[in-house]
Model the fold of this input.
Amino acid sequence: MQMNQRPKSFLRLCLGLLLFGLTLPVLADPQAEFESALELLSERSYDTKSEAVRKIVASGHKKARAVLNAMLEGDLYTRKKEKDLVIAVKEGSQYRITAVVTGEDVGLVKKRSLKKVSINNQLRGQLRGALALLNLDNPDAGERLVAVNELLDSIDAESAALLRDGLEKESDPDVREAMELGIALGEVTSKDPAIRLQAIAVLDGSMHPAAFNRLTTLVEQEDDSDVRKAAQAAINSIDLKRQMSGVAETLFFGLSLGSVLVLAAIGLAITFGVMGVINMAHGELIMLGAYTTYLLQVVMPEYPGVALLLSIPVAFLVSGGVGVLIERGVIRFLYGRPLETLLATFGISLILQQFVRVVISPQNVPVSNPSWMSGSIEISSVLSLTWNRIYIIVFSLMVFAALFMILKKTALGLQVRAVAQNRAMARAMGVRSERVDALTFGLGSGIAGIAGVALSQLTNVGPNLGQSYIIDSFMVVVFGGVGNLWGTLVAGMTLGVANKIMEPWAGAVLAKILVLVFIILFIQKRPRGLFPQKGRAAEG
Amino acid sequence: MLKSALKQSLIGGMLAAGMVFSTTASAEETIKVGILHSLSGTMAISETTLKDTMLMLIEEQNEKGGLLGKKLEPVVVDPASNWPLFAEKARELIEKEKVSAVFGCWTSVSRKSVLPVFEELDSILFYPVQYEGEESSKNVFYTGAAPNQQAIPAVDYLMNEIGVERWVLAGTDYVYPRTTNKILEAYLKAKGVATEDIMINYTPFGHSDWQSIVADIKKFGATGKKTAVVSTINGDANVPFYKELGNQGVSAEDIPVVAFSVGEEELSGIDTKPLVGHLAAWNYFMSVDAEANDSFIESWHEFTKDEERVSNDPMEAHYIGFNMWVKAVEKAGTTDPAAVQDALIGVAVPNLTGGYSAMMPNHHITKPVLIGEIQEDGQFDVVWETSGLVAGDAWSDFLEGSKDIIADWRAPLSCGNYNVKTAKCSGQNLE
Done:
């Protein structure tokens, strides 16, 4: 409670100062105020630091923005010996520091001689609020928009007045819209019913959560029946829009979960689906792909994005190579004996897991997301799609298309299909079936490696990564119909969407169980899956 | 015929000689200490570190001259994250290896699995991990946090210092989160939080697709009231959870997440940028400014020959537990488990946060509670701590049925499950 009020009253204070700052008597020399406030920042107590931030804003010093920004970004340090504040930027293994008060470049120092000015969540919020106020007249429209949005959550009469002033000078349409929304949010509590009605008209259709919340409280407290009716209508229309974007959101979540399933399963669709090998080590081939990404990022720490792109072909080669070794070394002796294949590949999966545990580490390893894969694209205030998921959906479709082309349009694909359909006949036609077996298994394994690259961006990279996907992969392939790539795609997407539709009301645990029960029942009815093999191939 | 008989007797003699040799060597000169932590399988990620910690503590004790004039000898077994195997390995340690005490287990289910073995053979287990409480065994000493030493103070902090009014209790679907959330729910309701302001959510182990849950949390938190997530999500699943929070634009200032299973070790495996500002509640952080802590970290780095290795809360628990055991053995003058069990109660040893921890009659210990914010370097910055030590409460005061139960292993009560209303002692106790 206390904390909630503090930033608000603080906001009022700064607003007051900004509005009437010129008329206020100057209490002391701003430079001295500013410097004394800076000294407080080196204190350990967060309350003292918060006080210091307040004083820095109040001093109106021209360096205030730079200091607060550096503090928020974590670039503000105290020098241990000199006990003064510096802004430090990393340069190689050292830090280039600039003195805050004098602004001069002091040179390069080791991190050990610096102590960070640490901040906590309350301070972070306070800093953002303070910067928002300072940024309302920032020349950059993007910064202004951020500032206005920062203010929207806690609009009151004063900040509304400030926004009204800003609106007169504002030319950018996005910022104008946000400002108008802010003003309306403030006017909803006006004493004049006509103004309230006007404000409701502006809020109508806005997807900002603050608009919905204000309208809900308004309906509960409103005496004027016209206003109440208008507010209720506005709530209803916002609600409808929210539900629609909820549907779109669920669909997106489902497709993205589905594309992960497709990625994990598509390699198995080759090794299990086309070749009929029950490969329990499939998950570990995925894991190897993820570790390849990690190792490449270790080799080139400065370019995580390049390392990620590069790891797609490298992971294909690594996992594919291991796949060929497994096929040549173990599986080829076990064709036609599914139970023994199952046990042998399960053993291989344990060996690979322990290998990673011993050679690299039993701990999970960090794989960083390049900046273009972080964050989200905002469709509206309640609907935003995360970039990493968008990339994964596109990527899985690309992998699918590439694999499809390989199987349908290349000589290797032709031979693979020929051997799968009728081995004896294919051999009679001069196909070297053993070589084709090894290459097919390598292809499926390589695709698993590529899936690992994608999964490294979503989940933990550790020795257990593969185990979490092996069951799902088999589920997708069996549901889709063994030996059918389209089946894998459709099955993966269907299961993903079904899972996400059920999750909100059944919970994540039950949703998973229900999907499994559904598949078991489905297989009872159609043992060959969604898209069964037709014709002669089905008999093989 | 003769030849083979000769061969047999020869081998027999050699074996017998070998056995005599090994028993004399081990029984007369060393005290054996069992280490029961998974070194392979899913739990290896967390438990391997604890095995190393124990080896280091034993080595240090030996350098100081051992115990009762004898050297300590660690016996390491690998229960491979397999719960029934934990019980087998515990039996092997106690019956075959004749260890004087065992340090081990991580998950509650592994502890429950070895519990009957320790009670049957009347040995001693030191359990170093925070857990859900509702247990007190004669043979187990709980050096991790009980719910009132972690979860309840964390909620108090959020409620009183941050002003949180709406609560999301998110956890992995197994016994620790379910019991903890039951306690927290009862506690919140007792504090006047309405049912519609509490959202409870469970996910499977290793859950990696957090999109819809994070979207739900975001909606739940968009009503204008300050919202926080209390997370009992198990170690591994946290990374994708935090990543999704970051990607969907939920920052720690809007909706802070306080976690009970995320420590330095877990953070060392991930990119901490999106996590900055989120909270964790523990009884120890590596960043704690205390002399004991500095020298502990120094010897840890020396022992592992790795300057980057982090220390964490369960390691501190083993540090406390091991020193308590050493002190109790010295006090009792013997390693006999029954004598040591009695001697342990009341023993106080320094902890790593600059104070002392004492073993309570209910086999739990006193600890300070710290709340830390995650920093960019994967360390925690302590933002709040309890003013004094908190004594571990085996039976929660906020659950129906466990309110009236106390544990006290001192004579004449000697009971881990004593109902003060009915004056009856039931379950989990031996005569």
The mean pLDDT of chain A is 84.
